[in-house]
């Protein structure tokens, strides 16, 4: 039996859709369906049933889910035991968009320099999606934001930096009052579906500011570039940029404090790849700029 077919089955169950599983696996829906048909023939029963536009596990599929996760965890453990030596590094890393466009390239460069044979798979998603993937055993590490709830005891977390809200403005406006900028200049808004964007919206409401909205984006790097071009100002987490040397923007502190977002790494405490995770964490600490 192909272990990848079990992984595909679990992904279909978790996403509720063959087409979504196919998208994540970079396969066609027909290829995903074929894998599941082979798995059903080998196991001798129907594993999924269609409900409208979604699919869900049959009774037999429900019974298989827990056993499949345990089998894949055990297989990952066996692979780690066989492959483990003083230099081998193999990791599945999830990262939020901000990390992908800032610290992660430097971290991976440091990791490869220290461990030339390192193999790392990188997946981009929202922090909430990365935590779900960690708990399902699909990732070894998540470089993400701390969630607004207490983490389960199965996960470890290390904060790398706090990112308070600041006003990002063109350098020529660096001496202007930040609230006056938010009231009078076009706003390049950080996506309100994200934690930092929600906190920015709450701040504007508390300050009774109705901004002149121009753009709304989910990329802090892109926001900084637009601000650098003089297209407006932004209220966003201070994740900007020792890693964006071509972008020159003023980062103006706010007169009223707002909740800072916490950026860091999370991983399974009982991971079979704990030694490799510790190596990645060490390189991440080294890559982070000094806290101001």
Written overview of the protein:
- There is one protein chain.
- Helices cover 44% and strands 23% of the residues.
- With 292 residues, the protein is of the alpha/beta class.
- It folds into three domains: 3-82, Winged helix-like DNA-binding domain superfamily/Winged helix DNA-binding domain (Arc Repressor Mutant, subunit A, Orthogonal Bundle); 85-161 and 262-287, Periplasmic binding protein-like II (D-Maltodextrin-Binding Protein, domain 2, 3-Layer(aba) Sandwich), CATH 3.40.190; 165-259, D-Maltodextrin-Binding Protein, domain 2.
- The strands form four sheets. A five-stranded mixed β-sheet has the order 4-3-5-12-6, with helices on both faces. A three-stranded antiparallel β-sheet has the order 10-7-11. It has a two-stranded antiparallel sheet with strand order 1-2.
- It is globular and about 70 Å long.
- It starts with a helix and ends in a 5-residue tail after the last helix.
């Amino acid at each position: 039996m192909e272990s990848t077919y079990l992984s595909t089955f679990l992904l279909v169950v978790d996403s509720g859709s063959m087409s979504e599983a196919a998208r994540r696996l970079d396969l066609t829906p027909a290829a995903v369906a074929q894998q599941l048909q082979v798995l059903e023939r080998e196991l001798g029963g129907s594993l999924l049933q269609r409900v409208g536009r979604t699919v869900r596990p049959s009774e037999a599929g429900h019974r298989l889910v827990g056993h499949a996760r345990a089998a894949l965890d055990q297989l990952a453990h066996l692979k780690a035991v066989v492959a483990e030596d003083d230099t081998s590094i193999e990791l599945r890393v999830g990262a939020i968009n901000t990390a992908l466009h800032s610290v992660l390239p430097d971290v991976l460069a440091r990791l490869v320099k220290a461990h030339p044979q390192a193999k790392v798979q990188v997946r981009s998603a929202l922090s909430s999606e990365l935590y779900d993937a960690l708990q399902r055993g699909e990732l070894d590490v998540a470089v993400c934001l701390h969630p607004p709830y207490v983490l389960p005891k199965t996960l470890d977390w290390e904060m790398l930096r706090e990112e308070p809200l600041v006003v990002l403005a063109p350098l020529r406006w660096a001496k202007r009052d930040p609230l006056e900028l938010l009231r009078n200049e076009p706003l390049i808004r950080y996506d309100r579906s994200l934690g930092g964007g929600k906190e920015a919206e709450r701040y504007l409401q508390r300050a009774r500011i109705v901004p002149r909205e121009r753009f709304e984006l989910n990329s802090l790097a892109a926001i900084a570039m637009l601000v650098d071009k003089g297209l407006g100002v932004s209220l966003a987490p201070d994740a900007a940029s020792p890693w964006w040397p071509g972008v020159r923007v003023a980062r103006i502190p706010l007169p009223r404090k707002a909740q800072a977002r916490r950026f860091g790494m999370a991983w399974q405490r009982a991971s079979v790849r704990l030694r490799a995770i510790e190596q990645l964490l060490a390189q991440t600490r080294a890559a982070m700029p000094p806290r101001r």
